[in-house]
Design goal:
By secondary structure, the chain is α/β, with parallel strands linked by helices. The protein contains 13 helices and twelve strands.
């Protein structure tokens, strides 16, 4: 049995027009619904399993209160955390989310975007936009587009969306490693320099220049979801740099690769962090469960999703939008993989005297 708007209205003891206003999170000149009544009607609608007729809204020229999200099929785990935050924030104010998946193609993003428009979405958040060799194509297609948000837009472009500020977090990492006596630092990065990675390299270069030290040594690897490939590439990285004694600290571009890097170190009998300190990226849930626990950069994925939605909402319905800062700050989480144990001076003296 299909639950209709009239069924919700009857169960709530209100008119169909009142139920419609409450469920659309809007108001009219003649019908106003208190927040308490609206919440009651919305709860009754959920209990009954009511689903609004999106097609009918679109045909009437009304907002569907559906937003689209475009993702890449090889997105890292943190992107799905952003999606979760977008969905939760959207549903809290009466929006539904429609997800479309693409793979490494601006043409695919264009097709997905057009398909979402055909389904009547009010606006779109794109989590799959930075394909370096296709960057100009993307800018030509999507710059200054109405009701369109991208995550962490490339600096200096006419794209709108939350910007992730990693500069302070990376400076904290470098100062932390310096305090631990790490003076030969390297970084593992993917061979395709997306904007996120470019940001990190710029910040590391700034810190190095300010402290008059060489920039971290770079080791580029092919990004792949294949775990066997990750393990092999991290073994090669360890043998080339860490095992040769060239480095005593390494920044790895995501936590999964960092985990395999740590495994490769431990198999060769290299102690973490006494011989080589390791720092990952994304602050994945498993970081705390590793031995040693993995230091990492937390880019606040939940806030990324919340901010992305509110920036889109600001374009769709300015009167409903909650003011938000478009800049999301990353932070450094120091754990045992980069914190060297401090020897007790008294104990050291006793050992030396013995």
């Amino acid at each position: 049995m299909v639950v209709k708007l009239a069924d919700v209205a009857k169960a709530a003891g209100v008119s169909t027009a009142t139920a419609s206003v409450a469920l659309s999170h809007s108001s009219t000149k003649t019908i106003r619904v208190t927040a308490k009544t609206a919440l009651r009607i919305q709860q009754i609608a959920r209990n009954l399993g009511y689903v609004p007729n999106i097609s009918a809204k679109r045909l009437c020229g009304k907002a569907t209160r559906v937003i689209g999200v475009i993702m890449d099929s090889h997105a890292v785990a943190s992107a799905y955390e952003v999606l979760q935050a977008i969905t939760q924030e959207a549903q809290a104010v009466g929006y539904q989310v429609m997800v479309s998946e693409v793979h490494n193609s601006v043409k695919g993003v264009h097709r997905s975007y057009q398909e979402l428009l055909r389904y009547g979405v009010d606006g779109t958040i794109c989590l799959a936009h930075d394909y370096p060799e296709q960057r100009e194509d993307f800018l030509n297609e999507f710059s200054n587009l109405k009701n369109f948000i991208v995550l962490n837009p490339v600096a200096g472009t006419a794209l709108n969306g939350p910007r992730i500020d990693v500069s302070n977090a990376l400076h904290e990492v470098m100062e932390h490693l310096k305090s631990q006596g790490c003076d030969r630092i390297g970084c593992v990065i993917p061979d395709t320099l997306v904007w996120d990675i470019e940001q990190r390299l710029i910040c590391l270069a700034d810190w190095s220049n300010a402290n008059h030290v060489p920039e971290p040594v770079r080791f580029q690897v092919k990004f792949s979801p294949d775990r066997n490939w990750i393990a092999k590439s991290m073994q090669e990285c360890v043998k080339s740099f860490a095992a040769a004694g060239k480095l005593n600290a390494v920044l790895v571009f995501n936590d999964l690769y960092a985990t395999y890097f740590c495994n490769a170190l431990q198999r060769l009998g290299i102690s973490i962090p006494e011989d080589v300190a390791v720092v990952g990226w994304d602050d994945s849930a498993f970081c705390e469960t590793l031995t040693p626990s993995l230091s990492s950069i937390d880019c606040n994925t939940r806030q990324q999703g919340i901010t992305a939605f509110h920036l889109l909402q600001k374009q769709l319905t300015p009167e409903e939008c909650t003011p938000c800062n478009p800049v999301v700050q990353a932070r450094f989480i120091a754990r045992n993989s980069s914190r060297k144990k401090q020897r007790n001076p008294a104990s050291a003296n006793r050992i030396g005297n013995g």
